[in-house]
C-alpha cells in the first residue's frame, strides 16, 4: 500500500528525509514536492489541490496520506471528497477552519522577509504570499463527517498556534486519535522526525 507524505508551506519534500529513514526501507513511501505542480500555473491553493487530486488518480487502491500544515489541509480535503480512496489519514498541525488573523499576520511577516529567504523553498516571495492569501476562506468543518477512515491527529507539544485546533479536530472525528509529540514545535518532521516516523509506522501498519 502506498503512503504519501505532504510537506508544509516553507518546506520541500526533503523535509521528510529523516522521518522516512525511521519508517523503514520496506515501506512504499511517496513524497512529492508540492510546488513543482505550479509549473506554468497560477499559484493558489485551488490549483495545488486540483494538481494533488490528479496525482492521486494513478493509484487504484486506497492510500495512506500524512500531511503537515499545508500538506495536512490538502490531505483533509482529499479525504473529505474521496473517502473511498483513503485507507488512513495522519494530519499534522492541520487547521480545518483557517485562522484568518494568523494567516494575515503570516503574510505581513512574509512581506518583510528578504527574497533570498524563499529561494530554497521552491516558490518566490510573491508566490508565497499569494498561496497563503488564497487559503484564508477555507473551511471544512461541515464536511468533516464525510471522513470515514482512521485518522491520527498530530501536534507538536510547543506548537501553540495549532494545538487547540488539533484538539478540536480530534473531538469532531469519532474515529480519530490524538498524538502530542514532546519537544516539538510546528515542524514535527524537522523537530522530532524519529518520534513522528515511529508513530506513522505504527498507525499505518507499515
TrEMBL record:
Keywords: Hydrolase. InterPro entries: AB_hydrolase_1, AB_hydrolase_fold, AB_hydrolase_sf. One of its GO terms (molecular function) is hydrolase activity. The keyword Hydrolase applies. The keyword Aminoacyl-tRNA synthetase does not apply. Pfam families: Abhydrolase_6. GO terms for cellular component: membrane. Residues 4-196 form the AB hydrolase-1 domain. This is Alpha/beta hydrolase. It comes from Ligaoa zhengdingensis.
